[in-house]
Design goal:
The complex is a heterodimer of chains A (314) and B (253). With 314 residues, chain A is α/β, with parallel strands linked by helices. Chain A has eight helices and 16 strands. In chain A, the strands form three sheets. In chain A, strands 5-9-4-1-2-3-10 form a seven-stranded parallel sheet. A five-stranded parallel sheet of chain A has the order 13-12-14-15-16. In chain B, a hairpin with a 2-residue loop joins strand 7 and strand 8. The chains are: A alpha/beta (314), B alpha/beta (253). Strand 8 of chain A pairs antiparallel with strand 12 of chain B.
């Protein structure tokens, strides 16, 4: 099975997809498509046998056209995209161009007995798991949720792979990139290893200032419930849950979060959950590994003190 | 300016209860307009107010989706169209996008198409960008805002690590995040119009499409199983003990 993997930009996050592709393809035919010049030896180490340089493009629509063109030439059996906002957009754009199916945000991939890509994903706020096949259309396209598959243990060959740079003439531009404004806490919520989240109960933006302090000490990002965002305590970009972002950090600290299901589905994949709430019957405790029944503010203050002292003594 | 809003009727999971095994009870849920689509509709209404033109709402679904389309009319949409026929059922995202595109072409000449960033049931977020790809329109997904100056649309896109501003000439397709624009209440005139309007129903032959429904869909769901949200065994401890436990398992960086 020939599997192409779209590696965003220089492919910094591509390791898990490449090594998964290598594992799925019995004959090890894995092609890395990347956008900006980089040392391709890395792709080989992660599992790619061949690399294709697409070239950078500031217009995501035009880049989608280029990827579709490249895939027409390569004719792979399957294509994997990272399920980032951009990766998902490109996977849909490309699938429409190639008139094939795409499964969004997969959390599992395997090969069936008859050699099809079995794609597993959740839906309905994570309450259902579905297995999806694309039997007759090619390529079979999936976007894969970041952080689901382990990083490769240096599995591939270490000689530089065959690299082809593609040239494009008539890709029509549709979008102009005008500006970028980085997230306000400097840490991308979805990639953060630690998320410090607050609910409406924090009462006032000052409450969230404490969470930002805590997040900085933990090298993490700040999340929030819909209630807190709706009350204007923090911008929508921080909202975790069904109508916000899904996070899967190693550690999730919930302060004054009651635990409505719409929030839970966005953080339930966290490795360890600590909930702080003064209401010992708050539903959040059912979704936490550790519960602290106490005032959120006192707990946050003590935690900040603890972490500062720990930093000094280390 | 001609604006098209694509709407989907979904189970009301915002107000859904949890069942005993901690899954969402979808069967009892009421049918509502997908939340992100409300933002798309409101943005469309606001742009029409400012720049003139007309606004059409389009959905594919069973006849009961008419309720949602009437609601859109009551909030200010000019026309409502429903793709409905048993043959449409079971379409995956590619075929849904094809049917919506065929309807959009039949209705003709839209400058701007707005959708929700994803539906709360399927959560794929693919239909919007697929439509744009098929119709060769500029497309920005996950937007929180869009403004128009002349023929140029300026769009703010929320990404994982910040906000990108894009500029695109019309025609364009934009998908909106939930909560981006708060949908206005129905007006009295709107309620009257909603009650008296005829909702145009289109079938596959009306839009001249040969690929529809589950039979034409490249992807097929072969197995569905409940995925309980997973209760955890919570140990309620004082802060010092929790910190000690986190240190022990190396959870603190």
């Amino acid at each position: 099975m020939i599997i192409a993997v779209f590696c965003e930009h220089r492919g910094g996050e591509a390791g898990e997809l490449l090594s998964k592709a290598r594992q799925l393809s019995a004959d090890g035919q894995v092609i890395a498509l990347y956008e900006e010049r980089t040392n391709t030896r890395r792709f080989a180490v992660m599992g790619a046998g061949e690399t294709i340089l697409l070239g950078a493009c500031a217009d995501d629509c035009a880049q989608g056209d280029r990827i579709a063109d490249a895939l027409r030439q390569l004719a792979p059996d399957a294509v994997l995209f990272p399920a980032t906002i951009r990766g998902r957009f490109l996977s849909a754009w490309v699938a429409a161009k190639l008139d094939t199916g795409v499964t969004a945000d997969c959390t599992g991939l395997s090969v069936t007995e008859d050699g099809l890509l079995r794609q597993t994903r959740t839906a309905y706020g994570g309450s259902l798991t579905a297995e999806i096949l694309c039997r007759h259309h090619r390529p079979q396209i999936a976007s894969v949720r970041p952080g689901v598959f382990p990083l490769p243990a240096e599995c591939g060959k270490v000689v530089p792979p065959k690299t082809t740079a593609l040239l494009y003439d008539n890709v029509k531009s549709l979008l102009a990139y005008a500006a970028f404004e980085p997230a306000d806490d400097g840490v991308a919520l979805q990639q953060a290893k630690v998320v410090v989240a607050g609910g409406k109960g924090l009462g006032g933006a000052i409450g969230f200032d404490k969470l930002f302090t805590l997040a900085r000490l933990l090298n993490g990002a700040v999340g929030a419930t819909r209630g807190a965002v709706d009350a204007g305590l923090i911008p929508y970009a921080h909202q975790v849950g069904q109508t916000g972002v899904t996070v899967r950090p190693k550690l999730y600290l919930a302060f004054g979060v009651s635990g409505m299901v719409q929030h839970i589905v966005g953080m339930n994949g966290s490795q360890t959950v600590v909930a702080v709430n003064s209401d010992r019957n708050a539903p959040i405790f059912d979704c936490a590994d550790y519960g602290i029944v106490a005032d959120w503010e006192e707990t946050a203050d003590s935690m900040i003190r603890y972490l500062k002292e720990r930093k000094v003594s280390s | 300016m001609k604006i098209l809003i694509c709407l989907k009727q979904v189970p009301d999971t915002m107000n859904v209860k949890l069942s005993g095994d901690f899954t969402l009870e979808r069967e009892d849920a009421a049918q509502v307009m997908n939340l992100a689509d409300e933002s798309a509709l409101e943005l469309g209404l606001a742009l029409r107010e400012k720049h003139g033109g007309e606004l059409t709402v389009l959905s594919m679904g069973p006849p009961r989706a008419e309720t949602m389309l009437r609601e859109a009319l009551s909030r200010g949409a000019d026309h409502a169209v429903l793709l409905t026929d048993p043959a449409f059922a079971g379409a995956d995202t590619l075929i849904t996008a094809k049917c919506l595109c065929a309807a959009a072409r039949k209705l003709g000449g839209f400058d701007l198409i707005l959708c929700g960033r994803r539906a709360s049931d399927g959560e794929t977020g693919q239909v919007g960008p697929m439509m744009a790809s098929m119709m060769r329109m500029a497309c920005v997904v996950n937007a929180t805002q869009a403004e128009m100056n002349g023929n140029i649309l300026t769009i703010k896109q929320l990404t994982e690590d910040g906000v990108i501003t894009w500029k695109a000439a019309l025609p364009a397709l934009v998908t909106l995040c939930e909560w981006s624009c708060r949908l206005r209440l129905p007006s009295i005139a709107g309620l009257h119009r909603a009650a008296s309007s005829v909702i145009v129903r289109l079938t596959p032959s009306n839009i001249g499409i040969k690929e529809y429904g589950i039979a034409a869909s490249p992807t097929r769901v072969v197995r569905v199983s409940p995925h309980p949200l997973g209760l955890r065994q919570c140990r309620k401890l004082p802060l010092a003990d929790v910190l000690a436990a986190l240190e022990e398992q190396g959870a603190l960086p």
